[in-house]
Amino acid sequence: MRVSLRWLRELLPELPNNAETIGVRLTSIGLAVDGVDDFGSRLRALQVVAVRAIAPHPKRDQLRLVDVDRGNGVVQRVVCGAPNVPAPGGLVVLAPLGARLPGMDAPLGAREIGGIRSEGMLCSEQELGVTEKSEGILILPEGAAAPGSSVVDALPELD
Known about the structure:
two-stranded antiparallel ribbon; six-stranded antiparallel β-sheet
């Protein structure tokens, strides 16, 4: 079972700041700690983006072309197969080129999908490593964070 350091601190505010020290202390009282993972550091490169436009993929019926705003007017096109892309204005999570998602050995690179170059990936909770299964991309609540912000700013529990 994974346990958030933030959650542990809510229960025990006097815990030290060092996660390794906390792991040693928990183990010393009989709670097995298999390891400490700085989960949030892998997610800091992922950005909150606002959907600007959605269009069907010209060659693949199950895919859509999603234009997203990364903040400061930077718009980029992403090929997406998720069934739940929100209407324009909705906030989602983008793994930009070069980001490393949990479980990936190499950084995310540009891919051509059906003849269209995708400049990143819209992420589900499963791809973020938060859940084992998901039905589509993660849709953030309105006002969760400004486009261009790190997903960790929008969802501090991931840090």
